Amino acid sequence: MGGLDKGLVRYQQRPLIEWVLDALPPQVVQRVISCNRNQEIYAHYGQTVADQPNAADAKSPFCYAGALAGILAGLALCLEEWVIVTPCDLVYYPQDFAAVAWTALSQHLAQHPSAAKIAVAHDGERRQNLCLLLHRDEAASIAIAMTGSHAVHAWLDARGALSIAWLDARGALSIAWPDLRAFTNVNDLTTLEQLGA
Protein backbone atom coordinates (compact mmCIF):
# COMPACT_ATOMS: atom_id res chain seq x y z
CA MET A 1 0.00 0.00 0.00
CA GLY A 2 2.99 2.27 -0.41
CA GLY A 3 3.33 2.79 3.34
CA LEU A 4 -0.32 3.75 3.83
CA ASP A 5 -2.29 2.29 6.72
CA LYS A 6 -4.35 -0.29 4.84
CA GLY A 7 -7.41 -0.18 7.07
CA LEU A 8 -7.78 3.55 6.47
CA VAL A 9 -7.28 3.47 2.71
CA ARG A 10 -10.53 4.50 1.03
CA TYR A 11 -12.64 2.44 -1.34
CA GLN A 12 -15.74 4.13 -2.78
CA GLN A 13 -15.30 7.01 -0.32
CA ARG A 14 -15.10 4.79 2.78
CA PRO A 15 -12.09 3.36 4.64
CA LEU A 16 -11.60 -0.37 4.17
CA ILE A 17 -12.21 -1.08 7.84
CA GLU A 18 -15.76 0.25 7.58
CA TRP A 19 -16.59 -2.24 4.82
CA VAL A 20 -15.46 -5.12 7.00
CA LEU A 21 -17.12 -3.92 10.18
CA ASP A 22 -20.44 -3.40 8.36
CA ALA A 23 -20.30 -7.01 7.15
CA LEU A 24 -19.91 -8.52 10.61
CA PRO A 25 -22.96 -10.49 11.75
CA PRO A 26 -25.37 -8.85 14.21
CA GLN A 27 -24.34 -11.30 16.95
CA VAL A 28 -21.00 -9.50 17.31
CA VAL A 29 -21.11 -7.57 20.58
CA GLN A 30 -17.50 -6.41 20.85
CA ARG A 31 -14.95 -5.14 18.35
CA VAL A 32 -11.23 -5.42 19.11
CA ILE A 33 -8.93 -3.93 16.49
CA SER A 34 -5.27 -4.88 16.32
CA CYS A 35 -3.36 -1.86 15.03
CA ASN A 36 0.14 -0.55 15.54
CA ARG A 37 -0.49 3.02 14.38
CA ASN A 38 -3.38 5.48 14.13
CA GLN A 39 -4.93 4.01 17.26
CA GLU A 40 -6.81 7.25 17.94
CA ILE A 41 -8.64 6.86 14.62
CA TYR A 42 -9.34 3.14 15.03
CA ALA A 43 -10.66 3.82 18.53
CA HIS A 44 -13.78 5.26 16.87
CA TYR A 45 -14.55 1.76 15.60
CA GLY A 46 -13.84 -0.33 18.70
CA GLN A 47 -11.25 -1.21 21.32
CA THR A 48 -7.70 -1.09 20.04
CA VAL A 49 -4.67 -3.17 20.91
CA ALA A 50 -1.11 -3.28 19.56
CA ASP A 51 1.06 -6.35 19.40
CA GLN A 52 4.54 -6.42 20.89
CA PRO A 53 7.53 -4.94 19.02
CA ASN A 54 9.83 -7.44 17.37
CA ALA A 55 13.17 -6.74 19.02
CA ALA A 56 15.06 -8.47 16.20
CA ASP A 57 13.80 -5.85 13.73
CA ALA A 58 13.51 -2.83 15.99
CA LYS A 59 15.02 -0.43 13.39
CA SER A 60 12.19 -1.07 10.91
CA PRO A 61 9.19 1.31 10.92
CA PHE A 62 7.02 -1.83 10.90
CA CYS A 63 8.86 -3.71 13.61
CA TYR A 64 5.92 -5.50 15.16
CA ALA A 65 5.62 -9.23 15.55
CA GLY A 66 2.86 -9.71 13.00
CA ALA A 67 -0.72 -10.91 12.65
CA LEU A 68 -0.42 -13.88 15.01
CA ALA A 69 0.85 -11.60 17.77
CA GLY A 70 -2.02 -9.23 17.00
CA ILE A 71 -4.55 -12.03 17.40
CA LEU A 72 -2.99 -13.03 20.71
CA ALA A 73 -3.07 -9.46 22.00
CA GLY A 74 -6.68 -9.08 20.86
CA LEU A 75 -7.86 -12.29 22.50
CA ALA A 76 -6.71 -10.93 25.86
CA LEU A 77 -9.43 -8.26 25.58
CA CYS A 78 -12.22 -10.47 24.23
CA LEU A 79 -15.13 -10.93 26.63
CA GLU A 80 -16.93 -13.65 24.67
CA GLU A 81 -15.78 -17.26 24.37
CA TRP A 82 -16.03 -17.39 20.57
CA VAL A 83 -14.25 -14.88 18.38
CA ILE A 84 -14.31 -13.98 14.68
CA VAL A 85 -11.00 -12.83 13.20
CA THR A 86 -10.91 -10.99 9.88
CA PRO A 87 -8.34 -8.81 8.11
CA CYS A 88 -9.23 -5.20 7.33
CA ASP A 89 -8.98 -5.59 3.54
CA LEU A 90 -11.90 -7.88 2.69
CA VAL A 91 -14.30 -5.38 1.18
CA TYR A 92 -16.83 -8.12 0.41
CA TYR A 93 -16.37 -10.19 3.58
CA PRO A 94 -19.28 -12.67 3.74
CA GLN A 95 -21.56 -11.86 6.66
CA ASP A 96 -22.56 -15.52 6.97
CA PHE A 97 -19.01 -16.85 7.44
CA ALA A 98 -19.43 -17.07 11.22
CA ALA A 99 -22.69 -19.03 10.97
CA VAL A 100 -21.32 -21.45 8.36
CA ALA A 101 -18.08 -21.90 10.31
CA TRP A 102 -19.97 -22.38 13.58
CA THR A 103 -22.13 -25.15 12.12
CA ALA A 104 -19.18 -26.96 10.55
CA LEU A 105 -16.93 -26.58 13.59
CA SER A 106 -19.67 -27.69 16.01
CA GLN A 107 -20.20 -30.86 13.99
CA HIS A 108 -16.45 -31.43 13.78
CA LEU A 109 -15.98 -31.02 17.54
CA ALA A 110 -18.89 -33.36 18.24
CA GLN A 111 -17.05 -36.05 16.31
CA HIS A 112 -13.56 -35.06 17.48
CA PRO A 113 -13.85 -33.51 20.98
CA SER A 114 -10.10 -33.00 21.35
CA ALA A 115 -9.74 -31.14 18.03
CA ALA A 116 -8.63 -27.53 17.86
CA LYS A 117 -11.42 -25.01 18.31
CA ILE A 118 -10.51 -23.16 15.11
CA ALA A 119 -12.24 -22.90 11.73
CA VAL A 120 -10.59 -21.13 8.80
CA ALA A 121 -12.07 -20.11 5.44
CA HIS A 122 -10.80 -21.62 2.19
CA ASP A 123 -11.71 -19.78 -1.02
CA GLY A 124 -11.33 -22.74 -3.34
CA GLU A 125 -7.78 -21.80 -4.30
CA ARG A 126 -6.09 -21.09 -1.01
CA ARG A 127 -6.74 -20.97 2.71
CA GLN A 128 -7.60 -17.52 4.04
CA ASN A 129 -5.45 -17.67 7.16
CA LEU A 130 -6.91 -14.56 8.76
CA CYS A 131 -10.59 -15.46 8.27
CA LEU A 132 -11.19 -17.40 11.44
CA LEU A 133 -13.71 -18.51 14.00
CA LEU A 134 -11.92 -19.61 17.16
CA HIS A 135 -12.40 -20.16 20.85
CA ARG A 136 -10.73 -17.70 23.20
CA ASP A 137 -8.88 -20.60 24.87
CA GLU A 138 -6.77 -20.99 21.71
CA ALA A 139 -4.71 -18.09 23.05
CA ALA A 140 -2.62 -20.68 24.91
CA SER A 141 -1.74 -22.47 21.66
CA ILE A 142 -0.83 -19.15 20.02
CA ALA A 143 1.49 -18.29 22.89
CA ILE A 144 3.25 -21.62 22.42
CA ALA A 145 3.46 -21.12 18.64
CA MET A 146 4.96 -17.65 19.14
CA THR A 147 8.01 -19.18 20.81
CA GLY A 148 8.89 -20.53 17.37
CA SER A 149 7.28 -19.28 14.17
CA HIS A 150 5.20 -16.10 14.12
CA ALA A 151 3.38 -17.26 10.98
CA VAL A 152 -0.38 -17.70 11.24
CA HIS A 153 -0.33 -20.52 8.68
CA ALA A 154 2.21 -22.49 10.73
CA TRP A 155 0.03 -22.21 13.84
CA LEU A 156 -3.08 -23.29 11.90
CA ASP A 157 -1.20 -26.26 10.45
CA ALA A 158 0.16 -27.31 13.84
CA ARG A 159 -3.30 -27.09 15.40
CA GLY A 160 -5.05 -28.90 12.55
CA ALA A 161 -7.57 -26.09 12.08
CA LEU A 162 -10.79 -27.07 10.33
CA SER A 163 -10.83 -25.68 6.79
CA ILE A 164 -14.23 -24.40 5.62
CA ALA A 165 -14.35 -24.89 1.85
CA TRP A 166 -15.90 -22.22 -0.32
CA LEU A 167 -16.24 -24.73 -3.15
CA ASP A 168 -17.88 -28.11 -2.74
CA ALA A 169 -16.40 -31.38 -4.01
CA ARG A 170 -17.87 -30.82 -7.50
CA GLY A 171 -16.23 -27.40 -7.81
CA ALA A 172 -19.58 -25.63 -7.78
CA LEU A 173 -20.02 -22.50 -5.74
CA SER A 174 -21.38 -23.23 -2.31
CA ILE A 175 -24.61 -21.67 -1.14
CA ALA A 176 -22.73 -19.99 1.69
CA TRP A 177 -20.53 -17.66 -0.34
CA PRO A 178 -22.01 -17.06 -3.80
CA ASP A 179 -20.04 -13.82 -4.31
CA LEU A 180 -16.80 -14.58 -6.16
CA ARG A 181 -15.22 -11.50 -4.56
CA ALA A 182 -15.93 -12.59 -0.98
CA PHE A 183 -12.32 -13.29 -0.03
CA THR A 184 -10.53 -10.87 -2.34
CA ASN A 185 -7.62 -9.41 -0.36
CA VAL A 186 -6.73 -5.83 -1.19
CA ASN A 187 -2.95 -5.87 -0.87
CA ASP A 188 -2.10 -2.95 -3.15
CA LEU A 189 -3.68 0.13 -4.69
CA THR A 190 -3.87 -1.52 -8.13
CA THR A 191 -6.09 -4.31 -6.75
CA LEU A 192 -8.29 -1.67 -5.14
CA GLU A 193 -8.68 0.17 -8.44
CA GLN A 194 -9.52 -3.08 -10.26
CA LEU A 195 -12.10 -3.95 -7.61
CA GLY A 196 -13.74 -0.58 -8.09
CA ALA A 197 -13.88 -1.11 -11.85
CA radius of gyration is: 17 Å
Proportion of residues in helical segments: 25-40%
Strand order of the largest sheet: 5-7-6-8
What fraction of the residues are assigned to beta strands by DSSP?
A: 15-25%
Structural class: alpha/beta
Count of DSSP strands: 8
| Contiguous runs where pLDDT drops below 50 for at least 5 residues | 54-63, 169-173
Task: Walk me through the structure.
About 8% of the residues have low confidence. Helix content is 30%, strand content 16%. With 197 residues, it is α/β, with parallel strands linked by helices. Strand 6 and strand 7 form a beta hairpin. The protein has a four-stranded mixed sheet with strand order 5-7-6-8, with helices on both faces. The chain has a single domain, classed as Spore Coat Polysaccharide Biosynthesis Protein SpsA, Chain A, CATH 3.90.550.
